[in-house]
Amino acid sequence: MRKADGRDGHAEDDAQARPPATTESLVRDLRDLGVEAGATLIVHTSLSALGWVVGGEETVVAALRAAVGPRGTLVMPVQSWQLCDPALLRQTDSRWWPLVREHLPCYDPVTTPSKNMGVVAEHFRTLPGTVRSAHPHRSFAAAGRLDARVTAQHDLSEPMGEGSPLAVLYDVGAQVLLLGVSAASCTALHLAEHRCDYPGKRHVENGAPLLLDGQRRWRAWRELEVSAHDFERVVEDFAGASGLRRSARVGAGLAHLLPVRELVDYAATWFPLHRSV
Q: What residue ranges do the domains of the chain occupy?
């Protein structure tokens, strides 16, 4: 049954008939998906996709922390695109770019808010005990046993490459948890972009104001221009070829669990064959 606004009436009725999710029910769902105590997870989530969650983002984070337990580690991207060079963003008229550069606030890992990362990631960022990497645009927040190791290094010119938390997550055998979001959100695949050549691969100029020796200074660098336009395709191909994607309902949303190392290795061979200029 389709409603006049195009929504699926049966799906909506099913969602309304489902009891609201709680910390305990979400932990059960995560266990059914395959999340184990002690796991290291890089999490991407949409709260709205999970249906009615009692307590909202607080409950989702509490469930994730309970699922991995005290020996596990949670990681979430908490990017702050608002601090990018206005020339990269093509933001406003170019004649105002010097003014924007002069007045952009310096990145502060404690106070700088994330941008377009969702309320779950933003809540996680603010919790006591969460640590954050130092990149002014592409930071990651982490909490748990490996949080210091994950966030220790984050090179300006390799925000998603070898000098980033993604390389550490690869090394420690982390998993990607897509919680109500598509594979287009799978940040770990940017590491694969750094590790291979493909048609159209190029670098772009970026920059940010930094506090250097107590002085505010503009710092410029070159970084890889990344793209997620084909991430859903590569993940589907990976799942079909490897059988290593696990999928299940978490709350009202569809969730996927994938191994970072195997996925990145597969994508690093896939991009040269399937990407075009």
A: 20-274
